[in-house]
Design brief:
Layout lengths: L12 E3 L5 E3 L2 E5 L4 E6 L17 H6 L1 H8 L5 E4 L2 E4 L5 H47 L2
Antiparallel strand pairs: 1-2, 3-4, 5-6
């Protein structure tokens, strides 16, 4: 597949007839770096942070032990949480950490609810099975 550079006079994005957004490759020249023929994209890859979910509780997150440790860090220090690194005063890391703490809390609450339900079911089964086993034990000759 041969990709030819698109002239700078054309827009970086265009829509197909089906309505899909296409990224066009643009060759740029940087005067500061002195590099010619450098390819760039107008957007960074990966997921973007959207609006906070409706159940997001900032006060709860700010009271968490992990976030308290985060607040004690000096500028440039790292905090590792949930297999991710967060650097103090790096753009967006505080919000990322808060969202990660909220996700962990949401998962813990969900798991706790499932565990409570499983315990209730086990208790009901034990109360139903116990009288039946007691009755059969007393009816044996």
């Amino acid at each position: 597949v041969h990709v030819a550079p698109v002239p700078a006079s054309l827009p970086k994005h265009t829509h197909t007839q089906e309505g899909r957004l296409l990224m066009l490759e643009v060759v740029t020249k940087s005067r500061e770096e002195g590099t010619a023929g450098r390819t760039c994209q107008s957007t960074m890859p990966g997921p973007k942070m959207g609006a906070r979910p409706p159940d997001f509780d900032e006060e709860l997150v700010r009271r968490s032990p992990t976030f308290r440790r985060w607040m004690e860090l000096a500028t440039g220090q790292k905090l590792k949480y949930a297999c991710r690194e967060f650097i103090k005063d790096r753009a967006g890391d505080e919000e990322r950490l808060m969202r990660r703490i909220m996700i962990a809390r949401r998962n813990n609450v969900r798991d706790h609810q499932a565990l409570k339900k499983a315990r209730e079911i086990k208790k009901i089964k034990e109360t139903l099975i116990e009288p039946a086993t007691t009755a059969t034990a007393t009816n044996k000759p």
